[in-house]
Amino acid sequence: MQTSAQDVLQRVFGHATFRGEQAAIVEHVAAGADALVLMPTGGGKSLCYQLPALLRDGVGIVVSPLIALMQDQVEALRQLGVRAAFLNSTLDGGTAAMVERQLLAGDLDLLYVAPERLLTPRFLSLLERAHEGKGVALFAIDEAHCVSQWGHDFRPEYRELTILHERWPQVPRIALTATADPPTQREIAERLQLDRARRFVSSFDRPNIRYAVTQKDNAKRQLLDFVDGHRGDAGIVYCLSRRKVEQTAAFLAEHGHAALPYHAGIDAGIRAANQRRFLREEGVIVVATIAFGMGIDKPDVRFVAHVDLPKSIEGYYQETGRAGRDGEPADAWMCYGLGDLVLLRQMIEQSESGEERKRLEHRKLDALVGYCESMRCRRQVLLANFGEEYAPGESGADGAERACGNCDNCLQPPEAWDATEAAQKALSCVYRSGQRFGAAHVIDILRGSDSEKIRQFGHDRLSTYGVGTDLDARTWRGVFRQLVAHGLLEVDAEGYGGLRLTETSRAVLKGRQPVMLRKVAAPRERTRALRAA
Ligand code: ADP
Ligand code: ZN
């Protein structure tokens, strides 16, 4: 068995050796057992079901929610000489009927099916007949996290996939996902009745990705600086809103980059054309909302940039994971400011979701903000969120935490400064101005600005007016952002996003708690230093 798997790997797929856990997974599934595979994007999940399907009798049924990807995969398999086909809503009746005939005749090695299609009585009865014929080799459930209602890719039909196990208990099942967080993994096992399946968990580390987070000052300029350092490279720039996608794509194009917009509001034809250009041409940048990316298999994406804060650390990991799938160096760069945090808090609070869901989303956002503000190795923080301890190399015996040497915090260790006095001024100014203004206005008061708004509210008469001229506006923005991130200030997310004190602010105001903050490096210097490293 071992030799024939190795043989098929070379002969059909053209790979010399298995990667990571692939060999063990293939052997396990080919022997007829169930598996739950957790492997990061680019890890080589497809082979884990494609190869056992070829080793076993009958057809391998692959459930996938990604219609665009189905076609690509089937084409790639056919080029390798594998008898593959797909069934989804894009096929015309004639073609679908032909695929069904092939299925019944036992002429297919692999059949990709959209979940809603698979669950139709018609398809299930076809499957019954196929099973009685040459048989079903296995069921592969790709993107298995779609079963989780807490994830953003929730597909209700995934919940019903247990029918496969109930009807054909002897056919092995393999569920696969690149979702790294343990609660989702537990939910997959439970919902798909895979509690007893063997789990194959790969490390989620992507060592070739260099992580960096920088404070937002002039986002467009900062993005341009970053992208200029990647001239000729393919990349993805993520924005929160469709409007921002359009603006950012136009801005990059004005500055000589082949940047194309992508979001759900763009005409389907244009969207598909933009995606094709990104996949086929070199050096194309796609500026997108998160609608773009799931199932995009482009190995040489050299950077992923976030100009807005993603909603969770899982989302961030998934999105950045689209960079560097070929294993070559790639950048994951994010530019974030207090405004992002305020906006996301408001979006959560003002959504239709129930209280439980809102709490969960706030917590997810907290974890991401913790990552952004951390002074530790980013990789350690990221992997710790997925319950994984980062321990590269063999020399972890002394138990010391090891840093990755390939993130901004490792390459340019951030400095901390005693910001106790600045924090007291900031908190006091928030309090005196009535706890209803945003950071920009409070900073104007601290810096003694002469603005219309300040005069209108009489804020030039506050005792804190002008007490903060010792720090520049950028430094103040860093102070406010970190005070919010550390829970010393909170955002009124139900209203206009004004700042107010929290339970913990008092200790700082009374001088009982010192505040150490991260020093904000000048963004340009920072980008340059990272590039040189
Ligand atoms: P995933 O689905 O986990 O994101 P894929 O299955 O698309 O990953 O594989 C990612 C890339 O790695 C593909 O280009 C694939 O051809 C390649 N690959 C997978 N397994 C091997 C292997 N054993 N040796 C070399 N390349 C491999
Ligand atoms: Zn690091």
TrEMBL record:
Pfam families assigned to the protein according to its UniProt record, in alphabetical order: DEAD, Helicase_C, HRDC, RecQ_Zn_bind, RQC
Catalyzed reactions per annotation: Couples ATP hydrolysis with the unwinding of duplex DNA by translocating in the 3'-5' direction
GO molecular function: helicase activity
Keywords assigned by UniProt, alphabetized: ATP-binding, DNA damage, DNA recombination, DNA repair, DNA-binding, Helicase, Hydrolase, Isomerase, Metal-binding, Nucleotide-binding, Zinc
EC class name: isomerase
Known cofactor(s): Mg(2+); Zn(2+)
Source organism superkingdom: Bacteria
PROSITE patterns, alphabetized: HELICASE_ATP_BIND_1, HELICASE_CTER, HRDC
Domain (Helicase C-terminal) ranges: 219-366
Record flagged with keyword NAD: no
SUPFAM superfamilies attached to this UniProt entry: HRDC-like, P-loop containing nucleoside triphosphate hydrolases
Xref: InterPro entries: DEAD/DEAH_box_helicase_dom, DNA_helicase_ATP-dep_RecQ, DNA_helicase_ATP-dep_RecQ_bac, Helicase_ATP-bd, Helicase_C-like, HRDC-like_sf, HRDC_dom, HRDC_dom_sf
Keyword Chaperone assigned: no
Occurrences of domain Helicase ATP-binding (ranges): 26-198
E.C. numbers: 5.6.2.4
PANTHER family: ATP-DEPENDENT DNA HELICASE Q1, DNA HELICASE RECQ FAMILY MEMBER
Family statement: Belongs to the helicase family. RecQ subfamily.
Name this polypeptide is given: DNA helicase RecQ
Record gene name: recQ
